[in-house]
Amino acid sequence: MSWDDKLLKQAKKIIKLYPQKRSALGPLLHLAQSKDGYISDDSITVISELVGITEVQVKSVSTFYSMYKQEPTGKYLLSVCKSISCEINNSSEVINKVQEFTGLNNNETDEEELFTFEAVECIGACGGAPAVQVNYETVEGVTPENAINLCKWLKETKPDVVVADEMQENFGGIKSFDWAIQDNSGATSTAPGFQTLKTTKVKK
Amino acid sequence: MKETILLTKHMRDNPEGSHLIDSYEKNNGYSTAKKTILESSPEKILEEIKASNIRGRGGAGFPTGVKWGFLAEDEDRYLVINADESEPGTFKDRILLERDPHQLIEGIIITCFSANIKEAFIYIRGEYAKPARRVQQAVEQAYQKGYLGKNIFGSEINLDIVVHLGAGAYICGEETALLNSLEGRRGEPRLKPPYFPAVKGLYMKPTLVNNVETISSVPWIIENGGEEYNKLGVEGSTGTRIFSLSGHVNNPGNYEIEMGSSFGEFVETLGGGIRNNKKVKAYIPGGASAPWFRGDQLDIKMTIDDVANNNSMLGSGAVVMMDEDTNLVSAAKSIVSFFAHESCGQCTPCREGTTWLEMILDRIASGRGRTSDMNLLLDVCDNISPGLSWPPKMTTICPLGPSAVSPITSLMNDFRDEVESLIPTKVLL
After folding, report:
1. Which tens digit of pLDDT belongs to each residue from A69-121?
2. Which fold has domain B239-323?
3. CA nearest B15 in A: which residue?
4. Are the CB atoms for B246 and A126 separated by under 8 Å?
5. Which long-range CB contacts under 8 A does B15-19 form with residues at least 24 apart?
6. How far is B404 from chain A (nearest CA, A)?
7. Which residue of B43, B87, B236, B348 could cross-link B287, Cys pair, CB 3.0 to 4.6 Å?
8. Å from A85 to nearest chain B CA?
């Protein structure tokens, strides 16, 4: 239930980065998200003690930001962009296809806890519209057909590390710009893959 | 029309390794920071920035030198890099973070030297995980080389950088909301006064908040001189700027250009024209917050002042082209939905108004509109931004609410027929 020593050590390291403890609240909530796939009551208690604020204060922050999930998510968080550049480039059809394949409404998770689906606001991939993120790893120029292929691939191969470049190569199309740099790093949970959080790995 | 390559030079010349310190240093990277620290003075740097006449690249276009000049005296001062790029249509900071993070770090070192700052934060939106990893890797490399940390470049100066991930809130691009977020609070904009973070910012200490592109421009300005930078572009919009082009164009992407060409020329040459040889019905000149221009206004020049004189804004440099087949009501609804979703909820006109606008547009778009909806839309808009003038008057703490008004006034002023055509003429009640 509670956070283990390894996670607590990680948390304390993060707190030390900031002049004031409370600044670490955001990153600690990302840690909680990576641990359970959502912000559990238990994590809220742990974080409130670590940062020295009340549980209600932690909860009030955690419910403000869309990346802290209040209910358990699946292994893969599918975020399809619906903002203006994607909207005028047929993102609604990508959304339809992903919903059809997964059988999910917005912000729902399937029973096997494999997929959580959400239609999201701008993810900064407007030149590669329509764009999709899986666990915050971006794929650009995704056709409705390739959106289904991407979901199928995730379901069949269940990768533990989600890598943007790999998905882009197999299911992407037009990009916002030349990515140029080869990169096999990716995300290991429904928190963003980031060194400081230890939520990223390089796929071999 | 050609690009002018300053900011994107290193990444273009060294596409595969531009994020690594070895490549950056091989191309004279960090030599300007080193020279600055060892030979220059804070006053000289500030003079160069002022002489360059660079204006902030985040959206507001505030003169950077003036902002730096405001910074109040204090033992503790901070630099916060705003990398919360989330204005729909914008993806120019993403390329700078992903492909040339050391240029940003060098800019931070020079900025902190000039402003006597010992701690900097790079606040990157949470959805930019890959860009954040690149920046974190670059920061670690710079520490290893002794360019960050204690006694940087062997001097008496210390400087630390922390890369901080946001968590999905457009409003945190507003600088005081960003500071609240970085303090571990809800990302709600602060009530003014105090007016400037440069006086009371992070932890109520003097804080510079600058955009990624602005600070990434600093090494070039210091290396070549503010006067040289000032020669590029046009008066009031000096230097180069990265424009993000998207929508119905053949070649969407980021383009680094000197400001001063027309939108039409930009789209026809660098953008490769509109797909399938269609005509432009409307376009957004500076991100989702900006009022639209019509397809017959493509001769407007891409400068901060020209766009402002035509009652819109160059904003974040995001140009979105919409062709003749675009359903503009759906497009406006997408933008209004964005602002309704991203409203922080503090101010009633924004929280309630954006939701109402979304609801009304939704029923018009789906053929259930009422004839009274036209005036109702304008009435709700007027409650958020009285008089519907440009620049907008506000009933709110920050400009998010008035931003949702932009697409509606564009529709009503220029495309009223299209909206009316969707409203059934006979409604049986």
Report:
1. 999 999 999 999 999 999 999 999 999 999 999 999 999 999 999 999 999 99
2. Ubiquitin-like (UB roll) (3.10.20)
3. A180
4. yes
5. B15/A178, B15/A180, B15/A181, B16/A180, B16/A181, B16/A182, B17/A181, B18/A180, B18/A181, B18/B99, B18/B100, B19/A181, B19/B98, B19/B99, B19/B100, B19/B101, B19/B102, B19/B134, B19/B137, B19/B138
6. 13
7. B87
8. 5
Q: Indicate where chain B has its CATH 3.10.20.600 domain(s).
A: 239-323
CATH hierarchy code of domain A5-62: 1.10.10
Whether the model pTM is above 0.95: yes
Which regions of chain B are under pLDDT 50? none
Name chain A contacts of B186, Cβ cutoff 8 Å: 60-61, 64
Query: Does A124 lie at the interface with B, CB-CB under 8 angstroms?
Result: yes
- C-beta atoms of B94 and A24 within 8 A: no
- Residues B24/B18, Cβ–Cβ less than 8 Å: yes
In this predicted complex, what is the ipTM? 0.98
Half-sphere exposure of B269 (CA within 13 A, CB side): 11
Residues 63-82 of A with CB under 8 A from B: 64-68, 79, 82
* Smallest CA–CA distance from A89 into chain B, residue: B247
Instruction: Using a CB–CB cutoff of 8 Å, tell me whether A16 touches chain B.
Output: no
Using CA coordinates, name the residue in chain A closest to B332: A84
Residue A31 CB partners (closer than 8 Å, separation 6+): A7, A10, A11, A14, A191, A197
A121 near B CB under 8 A? yes
Q: pLDDT digit string (tens) for B240-252?
A: 999 999 999 999 9
What class does CATH assign to A76-197? alpha beta
